[in-house]
Amino acid sequence: MTHERGYDLASQVLNVCNVHHKKLFCHITYRHLLVLSSDENGCIILKKVITIADDFWKDEFLDLIAQHAHSLSMHDLGISLIQHVLELDFTKNTTQDDARLHELMAEFDEALSAFDIADDQLHKLASKLMLDSDLFVEFVTTRRGSLMIQIILGKSEEIDKVLLAAVKQRFIDVTTDFYGYRIMIRTINAFKKRGDLKVYDQILRLIGVHALYLTKDLDVGNSTVQRAINLHHQDCTTFIACGLQCHYIELSFLKHGSKIVEMLIDDRISMVPLVLIMIEIVKCDEDTLVRLANDEYGNNILKKTLELAKEHRDDFFGDLVDKLNPLLDSLRGSLGENIVAIIDSETETVKDRIVSQENN
């Protein structure tokens, strides 16, 4: 379909094939959407397939394009595909149950379909969204609205500033939504493309400020924090570490929470997370510490903290050993046996060192 002669054949086949073959064509193009969308011939065929598809496949294509709108909006063919999908009656009907939202989207449709898109008209519409933060959240968390914002971002600095302000104003709502999160990423990249890196730092700081809430959001927020940690950006890791302060032990009992804690203390770019969790453990009451050592997720965090403390912060490691020593008998024969082994090994090392010194 990306070859000139193949494209002609595919186009002819689409004109005459039966319902079964059209569905087969939909299945093939759906699987290869990203490849086809980046090729001129492939993109033409893709648009034709989406246009003649039944409602089931139109919905599937709309979902897939909304999921990958960020990468599609990075090149002209991808933008043209998004615009084509937005012009379909099927897409327009997805928001018809909400009259206010549907009416506003119709205004965006009109502005985007103009031969010479006027930035001032789009700026007015973006400002209209900014004035009603609830409407903005509702807009960007729909497939249709998120696609519109994806292709509007980057058209002018003024429009981008308005949309950035709206994202920051309702940061948690945007960041914990599947489509909203992609708008946040697209916003960052729109400013980075102009050489403005301040927005990137502002967003990372906001992730840190709201780290606890985002970490507990299992759908999108937790993944957002994980991606931020994986940037290995010292300031970002420190922001997140401070945002979770006094909640490390609480999070260590949770599957997704413990994953964040583990990633933070493993990220050697900053020692702040390790120091903060060690302080929490030293201040923790004995019952909670025993539960932590015997917990499926907490045990791994406690074990890793001890190992890292021994490697990097010998002073804190001594405090942890002192804290855990009185609990060793209650941990023997349980899941916390590995914690006992670490402490016993350290005790034996200290004894050997003392004997060696006395012999000298």
Key phrases:
360 residues, elongated, 27 helices, mainly alpha, single chain
Please trace the helix and strand order, writing H or E for each element.
Answer: HHHHHHHHHHHHHHHHHHHHHHHHHHH
Question: Given the helix and strand composition, which structural class is it?
Answer: mainly alpha
Beta-strand content estimate: under 5%
Specify the biggest β-sheet.
none
Rounded mean pLDDT score: 87
Helix content: over 70%
Number of strands: 0
Q: What is the radius of gyration?
A: 27 Å
- What general outline do the C-alpha atoms trace? elongated
Cα distance, first to last residue? 82 Å
Number of H/I helices? 27
Layout of strands and helices, then pairs:
Elements: H1 4-16, H2 19-31, H3 33-37, H4 40-52, H5 55-67, H6 69-72, H7 76-87, H8 89-93, H9 99-113, H10 119-131, H11 133-140, H12 143-152, H13 157-169, H14 171-175, H15 178-193, H16 198-209, H17 211-216, H18 221-229, H19 234-243, H20 248-252, H21 255-266, H22 272-283, H23 286-293, H24 298-312, H25 314-324, H26 328-331, H27 337-359
Helix pairs in contact: 1-4, 2-4, 2-5, 4-7, 5-12, 7-12, 10-13, 12-15, 13-15, 15-16, 16-19, 18-21, 21-22, 21-24, 22-25, 24-25
